[in-house]
Amino acid sequence: MSKLYKNSGVDVVKTDQLIVQALKFIKSSHNKKVLGNKLGFSAEYKINKDITLCSATDGVGTKAILAAELGMYKGIGQDLVGMCSNDLLCNKAKPLFFLDYFACSSVIPKQYTEILKSITNACKKIQCALIGGETAEMPSLYQKNHFDMAGFLVGLKLQQKKFNVKKSDLIIGVKSNGFHSNGYSLIRKIIKDNKINLKKSTLGKKKLADILMQPTRLYHEFINENDLKKIKALSHITGGGLISNFKRSLPKNTKFEINLPRLPEEYKFINDNINSTEKELMEVFNCGIGLTLVIDKIHYKHFIDKKFFNLIGEIN
Fold first, then answer.
1. CA 137 to CA 307: how far, in whole Å?
2. How far, in Å, CA of 89 to CA of 94, rounded?
């Protein structure tokens, strides 16, 4: 049985130092309309006193390798859109248009078509236009049917009332659809170390391959403009897990308590193959929560009746 592995503290320090150095010359390109990347999810650019444009860019990580190995592409495009659109949602922005970048050894028609359909269908779900993209063939970089992809999304944000997060505010968790697009380097290591045949393995009544390739949930489908007026803070749970991503949405040194219900079924696959604590899992995976909201207690009834929404904690 393997042990859960994470980046060492030294690596994190080096990464932080690199980011600080990079920001020095990145910010030299900014003008007064750039409002920065305050939440760490998406950036803002001021158009006028009432409107800002928000942007987000991301990929699907090593889930793309698993998709290629399994030949399962029907959800990976939604993963790409979701990783960008859910970040944009944290800034309370409405998606406008999306662009994609697809790189491969050589275009395989069935693979390319299924991925593009998945991207297009995801854009339709959140009323976003796929207006362009780029396809690159690089046989010296990619082998066989392996590929990589990236997305870029722009959204519109209207001026909104700002709320202060305070003691006794509630933390609402919105359920994820499996692992989304994070933790797949570890997942693939588990598969390799334990010689798991994904095409034959099952978890409960489901095929393990189907569980691992479930697409990222698109949270714009579940949160409307009226909801956003009641939300104090939003966090998209991606790389780094539940706790670290949630902290990014809060003022510094805010204290809180999160109590998760039982881990979803897919985590039996993790727990059966590695030695890990719940705390360690929460530093890598979403643990069944793909999005978090901070709300005033008076809005509890409004949100708790929504599909996939659960109370998971409180601001102390």
1. 42
2. 7
Residues 274-288 pLDDT 10s:
888 888 898 899 999
pLDDT at 262: 85
> What is the distance between the alpha carbons of residues 26 and 6, in angstroms, rounded to a whole number?
28
pTM for this one? 0.92
DSSP secondary-structure letter at 73?
-
Identify the CATH class of 34-158: alpha beta
How many C-alpha atoms does 24 have within 13 Å on its Cβ side?
A: 5
Question: What is the CA 122 to chain-centroid distance, rounded?
Answer: 14
Q: Rounded mean pLDDT of 19-26? A: 83
Q: Domain ranges for the chain, please list them.
A: 34-158, 170-315
Fold (topology level) of 170-315: Phosphoribosyl-aminoimidazole Synthetase; Chain A, domain 2 (3.90.650)
| Average pLDDT value for the chain | 91
Distance CA 171, CA 212 (A): 27
